[in-house]
Known about the structure:
alpha+beta
Amino acid sequence: MKIPNKEYLEQLRKKYPAGTKLQLISMRDEKYPILPGTIGEVTHIDDLGSIHMKWQNGSSLAIIPEVDSFKVAPGAEK
């Protein structure tokens, strides 16, 4: 895994601040992935660029931006 640079992390944190609602499109490489269509709230973004979530199903599995597919949840756009 490549460690992201500071500029990338700053852009990611600006685009998806804590509290942003995201909807999962697909998740790869997980034994127990979150189901497509599930909505969650960003809790934080770590120094590896993983977007940590609080999902509506109770899970806290993180999204990996260049591996998983997601979008800002409908109605949550700024």
